[in-house]
Specification:
The complex is a heterodimer of chains A (224) and B (113).
Chain A lengths: L4 E6 L2 E6 L3 H20 L2 H15 L5 H6 L2 H14 L9 H4 L15 H14 L3 H5 L3 H24 L5 E4 L4 E4 L6 H4 L8 E4 L17 E4 L2
Parallel strand pairs in A: 5-6
Antiparallel strand pairs in A: 1-2, 3-4
Helix pairs in contact in A: 1-2, 2-4, 6-8
Chain B lengths: L8 H18 L5 H15 L1 H12 L3 H7 L4 H14 L2 H11 L13
Classes of the chains: A alpha+beta (224), B mainly alpha (113).
């Protein structure tokens, strides 16, 4: 959650950029979606527009003139730098992201601001923080808060459900009622998958100094 | 941009789309000269006008002007196209196209360097 920065160079200008907070992060996601849409539709204007707006989220002073006169690789590298800088750290640690599921269809009351407003609404109604304070959270903090809020709401709903008649199904054969708990969302019900331990025979290992890829926790050696 | 400098992003996206179309053929090659030759040959066999469009986009000129300039000069055309592709970091361009989602194909073996 530390303060990370990237130095972005574009068209002879240089900017030092910090990680986006929640407000900026959501706008970056929106522009990334626009880029994907542009690619799907084969619309160059939309693709380039999305890249420009993506950069503008982190570099508000970037002008069209600078952007369109810069060499293409500077624009793509700037996009890549900002994209990498703003990757959600520990994303796989959040169950709500790990088991994220949705049909991707917009709700009938959808609007362009809704993506940002859902976050603000959820956090503000629980903690009564201001819009500015919420937008200033780091995205991973916001995800953690939202996860806790939804988990709290679910347990409250489960309690209310347990007090209701509909929670107790009557079995005519045994003439008894059985409690049917409220179904939990997948991310609350499923536990974290176990890490797969790789077993390698020593004689199958390459000879010499082996440089293992990053994030490989352990490689167990099994002697013949 | 252009006028013998690198392209701007607007032209580059269109070039990426043209390259992406032929990427499955030329990404099999290991050396840069073979990559470009393979690209030019596959364009020539399929739709020669795409080669004109490539150079027009790279040089920032209208396609008619390119057609007039290189009429009866195939070797000059090929040389300038290759020069334009190299000047615009053609190898990195396919990586960029893949990163942006414009191309579904990336380098198989060599990276042209």
């Amino acid at each position: 959650m530390g303060e990370q920065v990237a130095v972005v160079r574009l068209g002879g200008h240089e900017w030092t950029i910090s990680r986006a907070r929640l407000g900026g992060y959501v706008r970056l996601q929106k522009e990334r979606e626009n880029l994907v849409k542009g690619v799907e539709e084969g619309d160059n204007g939309k693709i380039v527009g999305a890249i420009f707006e993506f950069l503008r989220v982190c570099i508000p002073e970037l002008t069209q003139d600078t952007f369109f006169n810069a060499p293409w690789f500077e624009a793509v590298v700037a996009y890549q730098q900002i994209d990498t800088l703003n990757r959600l750290p520990f994303a796989e640690e959040f169950a709500i992201i790990r088991y994220a599921k949705g049909d991707g269809k917009p709700v009938p009351w959808d609007n362009p601001l809704r993506t940002v407003l859902i976050w603000i609404h959820l956090i503000a109604k629980t903690y009564s923080w201001t819009k500015e304070a919420i937008e200033n959270l780091f995205p991973e903090e916001a995800v953690a808060f939202v996860q806790e809020i939804i988990a709290d709401e679910q347990t409250a709903r489960e309690f209310i459900h347990s007090l209701s008649d509909v929670a107790y199904e009557y079995n005519r054969t045994t003439k008894k009622s059985h409690y049917r708990p409220l179904q939990r969302p997948a991310w609350m019900a499923l536990s974290k998958p176990k890490k797969i331990r790789t077993l390698l025979r020593r004689d199958m290992l390459p000879v010499g100094n082996v440089i293992y890829p990053e994030n490989v926790d352990e490689v167990l050696l099994l002697d013949e | 941009m252009s006028e013998k400098g690198p392209m701007c992003i607007r032209a580059a996206v269109e070039v990426m789309k043209i390259l992406a179309e032929y990427a499955p053929e030329f990404t099999q090659e290991e050396k840069d000269i073979k990559i470009i030759r393979s690209l030019v040959e596959s364009i020539k066999d399929d739709e020669p006008v795409q080669a004109l469009r490539l150079l027009a986009l790279i040089d920032g000129k209208p396609i008619e002007q390119i057609a007039d300039e290189y009429e009866g000069k195939p070797m000059e055309f090929l040389t300038d196209l290759m020069d334009g592709l190299v000047r615009n970091q053609f190898v990195q361009m396919l990586d960029a196209a893949f990163y942006l989602g414009v191309s579904k194909v990336r380098w198989d073996y060599g990276r042209g360097n």
